Amino acid sequence: MTDDPIRIAALYQFARFDDPRALRAPLLAVCEANAVRGTLLLAKEGINGTIAGSDKGVEAALDHIRALPGCAEIEIKESRAAIMPFHRTKVRRKKEIVTMGQPDLDPLAGVGTYVAPEEWNALISDPETIVIDTRNDYEVQIGTFEGAIDPQTASFGEFPEWFRAKRAELEAEGRKPRIAMFCTGGIRCEKSTAFARAEGVDEVYHLKGGILNYLEHVPEQDSLWRGECFVFDERVSVGHGLAAGTHGLCRACRRPLSEADMAHDHFREGVSCPRCYDERSDEQRARYAERNRQARLARERGEEHIGRRDEAERDG
């Protein structure tokens, strides 16, 4: 952990909130009163999000969150940054705190077996273990565990269909699956392993605390992680020890960009990148260019520019 002044807290907790609407305003008020920024999602199934601010401010927000029903023991994944990684404070109500499209699934009723970072290497090195990266395709592109299967999903909502097809393929080969899943911070695996068990798979494991927990606790020389880990804030990616990574971010499509991507002819800061250039119209690129120009002018005046959230921005 660095000595940078901004404290970042990534968190989630599956809990049973009878009335998420009633929780929203008080939580937002605490964050704003303490100059805490970031995004928090509230649903009947719990809370999810990442916030940042001063040590005192973030602690005030966390104290409030721990007082919510079922959140007293909420796990927090912390890191630090030199500058504020968020532009604003958002507390939103959602149907799910991580969207899988399985409304009847209850992660509190039974998830896979948790595996500590220190024990993860042995599990995924076993040739009988099927290792699955539950994240989206653009996240997997910049880093994953050695030997992991990439479902190549554009969103987490595509995972159930992919999993059912993959399971049928494995069982057709006569294999009884032993599955190990992982994701960024653990929340998607809470759902994906609960889903696998609901589908009748008995031996299901997941990395406790996710990739971020592994990168923090497993020394680089012992690591089976390859590349960087995408994060949903202005840091874009992190590496071992949760040090800031090398990737930039396309402001048009919200995908991570390598140094080669940023040297490509189709890359224009705030406008396009090699991956989204053919997905956008000239009209859209002109709008992005104007948004980028306004942001640059605001920076030159020493002001903060908060543009509207683009329709292409991806969920966490």
Automatic annotation (TrEMBL):
Annotated spans, Disordered: 287-316
Reactions this protein catalyses: uridine(34) in tRNA + AH2 + O2 = 5-hydroxyuridine(34) in tRNA + A + H2O
Name of the protein in question: tRNA uridine(34) hydroxylase
Entry keyword set: Oxidoreductase, Transferase, tRNA processing
Domain of life: Bacteria
Function noted in UniProt: Catalyzes oxygen-dependent 5-hydroxyuridine (ho5U) modification at position 34 in tRNAs.
One of the Pfam families matching this protein, by short name: Rhodanese
Family affiliation: Belongs to the TrhO family.
Keyword Disulfide bond applies: no
Span of domain Rhodanese: 125-223
